[in-house]
Design brief:
Length: 160
């Protein structure tokens, strides 16, 4: 499980920024929670971002991130290739004046069993021709602007 808040919400991985004595949870803050449960060797993947207190910047970012995620998640069910899905997602992010925060430039990945976790295929430009059909995909566009980020994530099976 990954729990990042305040300026650490721009990170979607575990790294040198954790733990941090410089970043503390505030009365009004943004909190990104990401977890990957496993059951009988099968992975899941889910994340949400929530606002604590009342800060219009955080509220707008979280609402926009959820809206972008919901559009991409629905679109993914009828997409044919990684490239088609990535292009659609990247367009939504840019139209909303946000930036994609993933350090590897992806918006998600395949869901593999425990033994093949290192063989994930990422939803990124270099995998543009990979078909989506027949696989489970974690859709997780991590967006931000400035010092804060937000993301929502869930798994979809593409059948198109």
């Amino acid at each position: 499980m990954l729990v990042n808040f305040n300026t650490n919400s721009i990170y979607c991985t575990r790294g040198a920024h954790l733990p941090s004595d410089e970043v503390i949870l505030k009365v009004s803050d943004i909190v990104l929670v990401d977890f990957s449960p496993r059951l009988k060797g099968k992975w899941g993947d889910y994340s949400e971002t929530v606002v604590i207190g009342a800060d219009e910047r955080f509220t707008k970012l979280v609402e926009d991130a959820k809206h972008i995620f919901e559009q991409i998640y629905s679109y993914a069910e009828n997409c044919k290739t990684v490239g088609e899905l990535f292009h659609y997602c990247n367009g939504l992010i840019q139209q909303s004046d946000y930036h994609l925060l993933d350090p590897y430039g992806n918006i998600g990945h395949t869901i593999e069993d425990y033994d093949n976790h290192d063989k994930r295929i990422f939803i990124s430009p270099e995998n543009a021709n990979v078909p989506l059909k027949g696989r489970k995909w974690a859709i997780e566009p991590h967006i931000g602007l400035g010092k804060f980020g937000a993301k929502f994530e869930n798994v979809v099976t593409c059948s198109y």
